[in-house]
Amino acid sequence: MNILIVYCHPSENSYTFQVLNQVKNILMEQNCSLEVSDLYANNFQSNLTENEYRREGAANTELPISKDVVEEHRKIENADRIIFIYPVWWSDCPAMMKGWFDRVYSVGYAYGQKADLPKMKIIKYGAIICTAGHANEFLNEIGIAQSMQSVMLDDRLGKRYEQKEMLILGGTLEIENVREKHKEQIKKLLVNLINCCG
Ligand SMILES: Cc1cc2nc3c(=O)[nH]c(=O)nc-3n(C[C@H](O)[C@H](O)[C@H](O)COP(=O)(O)O)c2cc1C
C-alpha cells in the first residue's frame, strides 16, 4: 500500500516531528511504501504566483501548471492513502500547508468548473493528524475543534476522499500528560487507515 504523508513543521526538535516518526515506524512495520512531502525541507513555495492566480481566478486550464505542483500531483496519483501531519497554529494549519492546498489543488485537477470533471483520483482514506497546545476539551468548548474539522475534512479533503478522519492531538503544553494517550490514538487511526476500504 502506497502512503503519501504531507508533513509541515520547521524543526526536528519538535513534538510534531516525533509524531511523524511514530507514524512512519508503524506504517513501515506494516510494509507500507511511504512517500513524504516534507514541505519545509523541500522549501515548498506556498504563495500563489500571479500566473497561478490568473490560472485559478479565471479557471483557465489552458495555462501551464508549475513543475513542483505537477510533482505533488504525481505523488497524489501514486497514493492509496494520504496523511497530513502538522501543528495547529492560530487555529489552522501552518501557512505552508495552507499554500499546499492553494497551489496543488489546481483547477481542472482537484476541482472542476461547470461540466469539467476534476482529474484527481479519489483517495480511499485521508487522515489529518495535528498537534495542538490547548487541551482537546478546551478546543471543543470554544468551537475551534469543530471549525478545524469543517475546514479540513469537509472542504479541503472534501469529496476527494472516500473516508476521512481528523485526530487532534491536544494538550501538548503538558506533553507528558498526553504522550501515551496520543500514541494509542495514532495507532488506532493507522489501523483504520490500513484496514479500511478493501
Ligand atoms: C505560531 C504558533 C501558533 C500557535 N497557535 C496555536 C493555536 O491556535 N491553538 C493551539 O492549541 N496551539 C497553538 N500553538 C501551539 C502548537 O500547536 C504546539 O506548539 C504544537 O502543537 C506542538 O509543538 P511542536 O512545535 O513541538 O510540535 C501555536 C504554536 C505556534 C508556534
Describe the structure.
It contains 7 helices and 5 strands. The chain has a 5-stranded parallel sheet, with helices on both faces. α1 packs parallel to α7 (175-195). The chain starts with a strand and ends with a helix. It has a single domain (2-195), classed as 3-Layer(aba) Sandwich (Rossmann fold), CATH 3.40.50.360. It is globular and about 55 Å long. The chain has helices at residues 15-29, 50-57, 67-78, 95-104, 136-141, 144-157, 175-195; strands at 2-7, 33-38, 81-87, 123-131, 161-169. The chain is 43% helix and 19% strand. It is α/β, with parallel strands linked by helices and 198 residues long. Bound molecules: flavin mononucleotide (FMN). Residues 9, 14-16, 87-91, 131-134, 172 line the site of flavin mononucleotide.
Calculate the mean pLDDT score and round it: 95
> So what's the overall shape?
globular
Radius of gyration: 17 Å
Q: Considering DSSP H and I runs of 4 or more, what fraction of the residues is helical?
A: 40-55%
Major β-sheet, in short?
5 strands, parallel
Straight-line N-to-C gap: 11 Å
Provide the CATH superfamily: Flavodoxin domain
Instruction: Provide the domain count.
Output: 1
Q: What share of residues are in beta strands?
A: 15-25%
